[in-house]
Design brief:
Elements (H helix, E strand, L loop, with lengths): L1 H76 L2 H24 L4 H31 L3 H129 L2 H29 L2 H5 L2 H16 L2 E6 L8 H22 L3 E9 L2 E8 L6 H8 L7 H12 L3 E7 L2 E9 L19 H4 L1
Parallel strand pairs: 1-2
Antiparallel strand pairs: 2-3, 3-5, 4-5
Helix pairs in contact: 1-2, 1-3, 1-4, 2-3, 3-4, 4-5, 7-8, 8-10
Length: 464
């Protein structure tokens, strides 16, 4: 029974557990997505950066070559336009070298290449400037120009070699960075696909839970409808029974009293005292029977002992009356520390005991019943054990699953306990059946003096 109670507690907490797991999964997905997208963006940045370095290197190469070609044209032709092209290319090269140095600040090998390139280009541009100055000042000195041309070619080849080395380094970095970018892109796709799968799975779990809850709610609604119908039926039957009791017992008594009073009225006219005394005695007897029947009917509906003396006294009265009527031996064991409890708790325990004994009498065929009442922490426990043919497995299964098809008694017992925050368990084995109710309670205030003396309470004989 404790295991089943724990399972229900876990079942009640499952929506919160699922929500917490879903939240953790979504946070993990968000963190993973942020990580891989950040890495992808970083890899893409370095790919673009490598493209920019290669473009800057190519621009430096182009201006370097353009300066040499413009000098050559100016030396040969003296064209001022060629001199303008030379000056433009020469002026652009220092800024381009500075830009390259800044862009490759994280690459020591490229920094070394740029320092070497700056030195060689400086020497080369110096030779070109001397050649141009000679052409401008003294015309053409063929031998000197040839020597400077040979020297500039050597410096040009050295410069181009350095630029080729720089380009090769950037090509290598480009290959590495493109590989990293492609791998990060694959990771992003994997994370997105996994995220989509996780979200779909969470939605499916949520849909399953909702569908299961809706199914249980429909079953509960059907059970409530059937229970309402059965309650109305039972109410009608109870009204018929009460009407029959009133007609057959109290009604008959009042009819006898009416006839006796009419006879007394007529007898007074004949002045027969003996007959009057006899009629008065019969009327008194009929009146006592009527009073007893009315008290019996009242006590069956709600015993005053329950309000006046509490559950323990009412349970003892009920057990004695039941044993007397049914001829079933009932052993009632009540713990000594049972206090007065809230009215709702005592009424629920009494109705559960009453219904259980009624079911035992109707269905179990048990020769005896054991009843135990005790306190377990902040709860009161009522355990009823019979030794009959037990409870059908279908009834227990329907009871555990709160399905429709239960009788009004069992459903009413369960609802009473559930409303009080307790639990009700049914068990059946080869020895018989067990009904156990556990209800939380707090001790009630000291009961006031009962309005009706205990001696006037309903006795087992009247119950029978």
């Amino acid at each position: 029974m404790a295991g089943g109670y724990r399972l229900r507690r876990i079942s009640q907490r499952m929506p919160w557990i699922e929500f917490a797991l879903a939240l953790c999964v979504l946070v993990a997905v968000a963190v993973a997505s942020d990580s891989v997208t950040t890495r992808l963006a970083n890899a893409q940045y370095w790919v673009v950066h490598t493209h920019e370095v290669e473009t800057a290197t190519a621009q430096t190469r182009a201006d370097f070559v353009a300066a040499g070609d413009a000098r050559q044209i100016y030396i040969i032709t003296g064209d001022a336009a060629a001199l303008t092209d030379y000056n433009r290319a020469k002026a652009a090269i220092p800024g381009e070298l500075a830009n390259l140095q800044e862009m490759t600040a994280d690459n020591p090998s490229q920094q070394a290449n740029i320092r070497e390139l700056r030195q060689v280009i400086g020497q080369h541009l110096g030779l070109l400037q001397q050649s141009i100055s000679l052409r401008q000042n003294s015309g053409s000195d063929a031998e000197q120009q040839k020597q400077w041309t040979r020297d500039s070619v050597a410096l040009k080849n050295q410069t181009l070699t350095i630029l080729d080395r720089m380009k090769a380094e950037e090509d290598r970095l480009m290959a590495v960075r493109q590989t990293i970018s492609a791998r990060n892109y694959r990771h992003v796709r994997i994370v997105l696909i996994a995220s989509f799968a996780v979200v779909v799975l969470l939605l499916l779990i949520n849909f399953y839970d909702l569908a299961h809850e809706l199914k249980e709610r429909r079953q509960a609604e059907q059970a409530v409808q059937q229970l309402s119908s059965r309650i109305l039926h039972v109410q009608d039957e109870e009204r018929r029974r009460v009407a029959r009791e009133l007609h057959d017992s109290i009604g008959q008594v009042f009819a006898v009293l009416k006839m006796n009073l009419e006879m007394i009225s007529r007898t007074f006219k004949t002045s027969d005292p003996q007959q009057v005394q006899q009629l008065l005695a019969e009327s008194k007897t009929a009146l006592e029977i009527g009073l007893s029947g009315a008290r019996t009917l009242s006590h069956l509906l709600h015993p005053p002992l329950l309000d006046e003396m509490g559950f323990v006294s009412a349970a003892k009265w009920l057990v004695e009356g039941f044993s007397l009527r049914s001829k079933i031996q009932v052993q009632l064991e009540v713990a000594e520390n049972i206090p007065r409890m809230e009215q709702d708790v005592e009424l629920a325990l009494f109705r559960i005991l009453q219904e259980a004994l009624t079911n035992i009498h109707k269905h179990s065929g048990s020769p005896s019943v054991d009843i135990h009442v005790k306190i377990e922490g902040s709860k009161v426990s009522l355990r009823i054990r019979d030794y009959g043919k037990g409870i059908p497995a279908g009834v227990i299964d329907a009871f555990k699953r709160s399905k429709a098809g239960l009788g009004v008694g069992l459903a009413g017992m369960r609802e009473r306990v559930r409303d009080l925050g307790g639990r009700l368990e049914l068990k059946s084995d080869a020895k018989g059946a067990v009904v156990e109710a556990s209800v939380p309670f707090t001790a009630a205030r000291e009961a006031q003096e009962p309005e009706v003396a205990l001696g006037n309470a309903f006795t087992p004989e009247q119950h029978g």
